[in-house]
Structure formats: C-alpha cells, structure tokens
Design goal:
seven-stranded mixed beta sheet; 18% strand
Length: 273
C-alpha cells in the first residue's frame, strides 16, 4: 500500500512535493490520489534525508540520476506491517463465531478476500480457519496487494519460525512444514489465489463474496477515499457477508447503512440485504 495524498491544496506547496508527486505518477506509475498528505510527506522525507537531497525538488533529480532509487522509494512508501493472527481477539471471533456461521449459511465455496494482504500472513490464516470449519473443498481465498515484492513473499508462503508462533499449535501442525523457515503445505497453498490489486484505482476483483478483510490499510486514506472504498466493499459482499476492518479504523459514510455490527469493538460487520 503506497502512502500518498489527495487534495491539491495540500500538495501544491513551495517545497516541491506537488511537482514530485506529479513526477511519481508520470514516470513511476505511482498514483497519489486518495492518501493522506501527512503520510506521504513523512515517508518520502525518509528517502530525501537518506539521499542527502535536502528537499523534494532536489530529490526528483536524484530519481533521474539513480534509477535504483525508485525501488528504494517504493519500499519506503509501502506499508507492509502484518502478522499471523494479528489482534488475537479478532481471530478468536472469526474462528469461534463468524466463520462457522458463514460455513453453515453458504452453499458451496465460502469466498473470502484479504485486501491489502502485504506478505500474506492474513490470507493464509483465513484459509486455515475456513478449511477447518468449512472444509478444504469449500475454501476459496483471494489475497491482493499493490506491492509486487510483498506479493512475491505471499506467493512463496515461506516464513521464519518465530513469525508463525502466534498460530495455534494444532493449526501449525496441520498447515505448515519445515523447522526454520517453515512453509505452507501444498494442501493450503491451493486454496489461496494471490494477485496484484490497487484498492484506489482498480475495480473490486470479485463480487458475491462472503468475507472481506481490509485491516490497517484505510487508515492511511483520506475520508473521501475511505467512504468510496467502503461502498465498493459493500458492493463486493453478498447479503449476509462479513467485513472486517482494523481496530483503529471506523466504518463511515453512506456505506454504514449497508452494514450492521457483529462486534463493533473488533470492527466486524455484517452486510445487510
């Protein structure tokens, strides 16, 4: 997920940030629409200081002179904080209540989308839980992110032993092999499809979904972008489907009328008809 900004009034400033954003979109296909200005300024500033450029205008020249800096910039702009079973209470609710209920209600495959999946820990966790309660043959998880490096890690499905320590022991024994690193077993790998998707630029990759998780992603978006994304999630979900957000994120805008809380504290909502 790339942190950027959206309102021209916040960006067209004398320090050259606005012109740099134009360059990122033009020369690097880095879309700046929809993200908070403060996040963009802070993260690009990391590379400005690291290269000794001094300001955003000079940093644009650094990008021209050193093509490898584009990679360093994208790495800095990308937010890839994730983990297996992050927020234990959320996953306890999913494991004990939400997913078993979906498995009972849905005929055929239970279709989930992990949006902004980073390096893949969340979609693999969802696939484990779904397979446990709905069966392998009824589990289908789509994992998407905008960052190709993160997607490569998600596809590889290889993790350090300490990274899988939050996974309950029974699930580790069934769905992982190896010692350190460990890897997701083939039976689980076949349940998850990993593909690139930009939440702000691309149409939803599927409809009729039964579960959408998008956690700790929209917090970096402007209010307008958040509300538009929530509306798209509502469109992607089948009636009765479930939306899960991050603990620091609030369901706002007209899309609120499309949901009722299952657990407001854990940011779990059900799509109404």
């Amino acid at each position: 997920m790339i942190e950027a900004a959206s309102r021209d009034g916040d960006l067209r400033v004398e320090d050259g940030l606005g012109r740099l954003l134009d360059k990122l979109a033009r020369d690097g296909d880095v879309c700046c629409a929809g993200y908070k200005p403060s996040c963009l300024r802070r993260r690009i500033g990391v590379r400005v200081r690291a290269t000794g450029a001094g300001d955003f205008g000079r940093y644009a020249h650094v990008l021209d002179a050193h093509p490898a800096e584009w990679t360093a910039l994208r790495d800095t702009l990308t937010v890839n904080v994730t983990g297996f079973f992050r927020d234990a209470a959320v996953f306890a609710q999913l494991r004990e209540q939400v997913l078993p209920a979906l498995a009972r209600q849905v005929e055929g495959p239970v279709r989930a989308w992990s949006a902004g999946c980073a390096s893949g820990e969340e979609p693999w966790a969802l696939a484990m839980l779904l397979a446990e309660c709905a069966g392998v043959e009824r589990t289908a998880v789509l994992a998407t992110d905008v960052d190709e490096r993160s997607l490569a890690r998600a596809r590889a499905a290889v993790y350090a032993a300490h990274a899988v320590s939050p996974v309950p022991a029974s699930l580790r024994a069934r769905w992982f092999a190896g010692v350190d690193p460990v890897h997701v077993v083939p039976a689980l790998r076949g349940l998850v499809t990993v593909q690139r998707h930009d939440l702000l630029r691309d149409a939803v990759p599927a409809t009729g979904l039964h579960l959408v998780t998008c956690r700790y992603v929209v917090i970096y978006f402007t209010r307008q972008a958040q509300e538009a994304l929530y509306a798209r999630f509502a469109d992607a979900l089948a009636p009765g489907g479930v939306l899960v957000l991050g603990k620091s994120e609030l369901l706002t805008g007209p899309a609120r009328r499309s949901f009722v809380p299952i657990d407001a504290r854990e940011r779990i909502y059900r799509r109404v008809a």
